[in-house]
Design brief:
With 291 residues, this protein is of the alpha/beta class. It has 12 helices and 10 strands. A 6-stranded mixed β-sheet has the order 6-7-8-3-9-10, sandwiched between helices. Bound molecules: adenosine-5'-triphosphate (ATP) and magnesium ion.
Length: 291
Amino acid sequence: MYESEAKLAEPNATMRSGVGNVRATVPREHRQTVGNTRVDNPRIRCNKLNVYYGDTHAIHDINLDVGNNEILALIGPSGCGKTTFLRCMNRMNDTIPGCRVEGEIIVDKQNVNSPEVDVVPLRARMGMVFQKPNPFPKSIYENVAFGPRIHGLTANKAELDEVVETSLVKAGLWDEVKERLDQPGTGLSGGQQQRLCIARAIAVQPEVILMDEPCSALDPIATAVIENLMVELRQNFTICIVTHSMQQAARVSNRTAFFHLGDLIEVGETNELFIRPGHQLTEDYITGRFG
Ligand SMILES: Nc1ncnc2c1ncn2[C@@H]1O[C@H](COP(=O)(O)OP(=O)(O)OP(=O)(O)O)[C@@H](O)[C@H]1O
Ligand SMILES: [Mg+2]
């Protein structure tokens, strides 16, 4: 068990005693981000990001970097803007009528929000796994083969077969589906469908993987498979994961960003943030006093 996990298991024992622990000092009313929002050589850099749904101001002036080869966990109570923030990264908010995004999201020196950005290749580079699995109405094989085929990533059927198998193995689904690859993806159980969607996302070798509560429908064994996969993928990719599980954030992420009512309240190294939160709201949330 990591130190931060141990701490989460017994929040009151360490947090409340104050032994070896700096008490949070920033009051609840303070809305400016605590912690270092910037990293060296970011993969993604957000500058003054604001998102509106009609008159609702859902994301407030957020500055945040996501590093190369890092897993960034996004945490915070329901409705705080985690999904909205994640969906900005690959312009998924474009599909929501009345949604307006302002500010910059710089990836490879280009602002993702520029009108001239073609969202199809952008979404291949920045793959997404949603909370609710959404397999295509196609066979299991075709769900995974679809992306590599349309992006021309494989030269022949043998290579495509290889990508499909490798992706399904990595997502921890191969053994359960290898005898029925031609059957519909929608015929799998919820947890299997989610692993299929993860296989589909990684089959195109995205640079960034955006995951919105990817394990909420999975049992502990499948969750462990996906968490191990994330740690493995981090060697080559960048991952942003929304999670309601503090334990999961502590297990897999390098940095954690805590959102509250559309504000980025605190960001920092995961171990540091869970052990020594700098903001009262962060402390209240991670110790289970609200959320
Ligand atoms: N399509 C939409 N139209 C209007 N308002 C929306 C829409 N999607 C989200 N919102 C609002 O934006 C705010 C942020 O929502 P968001 O879904 O990003 O929260 P979240 O942190 O992902 O919550 P949860 O943990 O419940 O998934 C909320 O006030 C929500 O009601
Ligand atoms: Mg959400």
